[in-house]
Design a protein that fits this description.
Layout lengths: L2 H13 L11 E7 L14 E10 L2 E7 L4 H30 L4
Antiparallel strand pairs: 1-2, 2-3
Length: 104
Amino acid sequence: MDAATLLAKRQVIVRGSPKIGQVIKGSIVIMRRCCGKSNCRCRNGFKHRSLYVSQTVDGKPRLVYIPKRSEAGVRRLIANYRRLKAVLQKISSANTLLATKAIR
């Protein structure tokens, strides 16, 4: 592949990438719990659902609660992070090929 083709390919990859400020690193965790009220339906198997983002901070796991109203947005931001990570890998590969051709 020639350098011009690689540069064009890299530009297409960059254009399709999510914005850097629109990402969250982590995974969605759904927990189901009982609330503690003696007459609540969760005592009969219908546990309350809560959503968390699982992250590793300074080598330690951390769960961050996500309100139900924010679920769709958080899921989108996590998907953006994964897409951006894949885009960076593709750009790095293209740049490595360009570097072997001594063009930047």
